[in-house]
Specification:
mainly alpha
Length: 432
C-alpha cells in the first residue's frame, strides 16, 4: 500500500517523526494556542495516524522509527485528556483572550469526543501500544528472566500507551472507560481461554488484563474483587496445560501484574484463594515464566497482609518453591528477588519456628555464596539475611525452638570463615 511504501523511505520517516514529535511538545506546552488550529482537527489527525500505522509490517530496522511515530500520537491524546480546560471548560484563572481560547478549545474537544468515543480511543491505544509482535513473545518465552512480568513492559511505546489509557479515565470521562472495560470483561468471560488459543485471541485477552491493571483506580469503586476473581480463575487454570512456547503463557504472567496492582484492595476473605493460586504458580510443576511472575504479587501481598492467618497454611511451601526456583535462575536480579522473598517468609516463620531447612537447600545456598560476584555483593548480602533468619529459629528465646541443624551450622561457619578471610585480604572459598 501507499503507507507501507512511504514508511520504507528513511528521509520521509525521519522528517515525519520530527514534525510529529515537536507538534506533541508544542501541544503539551501551549494547549490553548491550538484553538486557531482547531483541537478537533488536530486530534483527529493523531487518530488517523495511529489507525494508519498500527499493525503496519516493517523491517526490524524500521521498527524503532514506527514506534516513535506511534508514541508521539499517543502523547498527543494523553496531553489533550490531561488538559483540564479541554475536559471541563474554562478555569477561574482564565481572563480575556485566554478565556475565549479556553471556551473554544473546550467546544472543539467536545466535537472530537462526539466523533471518537472513549471506548474507541481506548481500543486504538491498546492496538497501537499493547499488542505485541508474535516474534517478541516467542523470544520472551525462550528466556523470561529479563522481563518478569511479560515482554515490552518497560518500552517507551508501552508506557505511552499506558499513560494514554490512564488519561482517558479522568473525570468526567471515567464512567465511559469503566463501562467499556466492563463490556470487554463480559465478552471475554463468555469465551473461556484455552491452551491452544490463537495468537490473536491471546492478544485480546492480554490487552484486557493490561486494562485491569492500568485502570485500577477507576475500576475499584465499581468492580468487586470477587467478580474479577471469577474472571481470572479460568486463566489460572490454564497453567498446568500450557506448552513451553504457547502464546497463552502470557496470560497467567500478565495476571500476576493485575494481582500486584490490586493487592491492597483484596478483601480478607478472598486472600486464601489468591494465595493458593500464586502457590500453584510458584510450584515446580509450573512453567518458568509463570513462576518468575508470581514473585512480584507475593512480595506486595506479604507487605499488605503480613499478619493474616492464611499465610500459615502456605508459607512453608512458598519458601520451598522459592528456593527451588533459585536453583534454576541465573540473573542476579532474579536471584535477589527469590532470596529477598525467602527472607521475608522466614522472618514471619521465625515467630513460630516451624520451618525446617534441608541439607540439600543449605548446599544450594552455599554454592550460590561461592559463585564469583562483583560490585556490591548484592546476592551475598541477601544470603546473609536468609541465614540470619534461619538461625533465629534456633534462638533460645523462641518457643517452640528448632535445634540448630548440622547442615545449617556448617554452612554458617563456612560463610563466617569466608567473611573473615576477605576481611584479612583473602578470597571467598571457591572463588578464583
Amino acid at each position: 500500500t501507499h503507507s507501507q511504501q512511504l514508511i520504507q523511505c528513511p528521509f520521509f520517516l525521519k522528517n515525519l517523526k520530527s514534525v510529529l514529535k515537536w507538534w506533541a511538545l508544542l501541544f503539551h506546552a501551549h494547549p490553548l494556542a491550538f484553538a486557531a488550529a482547531n483541537v478537533n482537527a488536530v486530534l483527529h489527525c493523531s487518530v488517523e495516524v495511529l489507525r494508519t500505522l498500527t499493525g503496519l509490517n516493517v523491517s526490524p530496522e524500521m521498527r524503532p522509527w514506527l514506534e516513535g511515530l506511534l508514541r508521539s500520537q499517543l502523547l498527543m491524546l494523553s496531553h489533550s485528556f490531561n488538559t483540564v480546560t479541554f475536559r471541563k471548560g474554562p478555569q477561574p484563572n482564565h481572563q480575556g483572550a485566554a478565556l475565549e481560547a479556553a471556551r473554544l478549545c473546550h467546544s472543539q474537544f467536545g466535537d472530537f469526543l462526539r466523533a471518537h468515543s472513549v471506548a474507541d480511543l481506548c481500543e486504538l491505544a491498546c492496538r497501537a501500544a499493547l499488542r505485541l509482535p508474535q516474534e517478541e513473545v516467542q523470544t520472551w518465552l525462550s528466556e523470561p528472566e529479563d522481563q518478569l512480568l511479560g515482554p515490552q513492559c518497560q518500552t517507551e511505546l508501552h508506557q505511552a500507551g499506558e499513560a494514554c489509557i490512564k488519561a482517558l479515565g479522568q473525570a468526567p470521562l471515567d464512567q465511559a472507560l469503566v463501562e467499556h472495560i466492563a463490556k470487554r470483561m463480559q465478552e471475554e468471560t463468555a469465551s473461556a481461554p484455552s491452551p491452544n488459543d490463537s495468537f490473536d485471541v491471546v492478544m485480546r485477552k492480554d490487552m484486557l488484563l493490561s486494562l485491569l491493571a492500568f485502570c485500577h483506580s477507576q475500576l475499584t469503586p465499581h468492580l468487586q474483587f470477587q467478580v474479577m476473581l471469577a474472571f481470572i480463575l479460568p486463566i489460572a487454570h490454564l497453567v498446568p496445560h500450557l506448552q513451553p512456547q504457547a502464546p497463552a503463557m502470557l496470560l497467567p504472567v500478565r495476571l500476576c501484574s493485575v494481582l500486584r496492582t490490586w493487592a491492597a484492595d483484596i478483601p480478607s476473605d478472598a486472600l486464601m484463594p489468591v494465595l493458593q493460586l500464586l502457590q500453584a504458580f510458584l510450584s515446580a510443576e509450573s512453567p518458568k515464566a509463570v513462576r518468575l511472575a508470581a514473585l512480584s504479587p507475593l512480595r506486595v501481598m506479604l507487605e499488605r497482609f503480613s499478619d493474616h492467618e492464611a499465610w500459615t497454611q502456605v508459607q512453608g511451601q512458598l519458601i520451598d518453591s522459592s528456593l527451588a526456583l533459585l536453583s534454576m535462575v541465573t540473573s542476579p536480579e532474579v536471584q535477589w528477588r527469590c532470596l529477598n522473598l525467602v527472607n521475608l517468609f522466614l522472618v514471619e516463620e521465625a515467630e513460630s519456628g516451624r520451618y525446617q531447612v534441608t541439607e540439600r537447600t543449605m548446599q544450594q545456598l552455599l554454592e550460590l555464596w561461592r559463585r564469583p560476584e562483583e560490585g556490591e555483593f548484592l546476592i551475598r548480602h541477601a544470603l546473609l539475611d536468609v541465614l540470619r533468619a534461619l538461625v533465629l529459629m534456633s534462638c533460645r528465646s523462641r518457643s517452640p525452638r528448632l535445634a540448630l541443624s548440622p547442615p545449617l551450622l556448617s554452612c554458617c561457619l563456612t560463610v563466617i570463615s569466608d567473611c573473615y578471610a576477605v576481611h584479612r585480604g583473602g578470597n571467598f572459598s571457591g572463588s578464583k
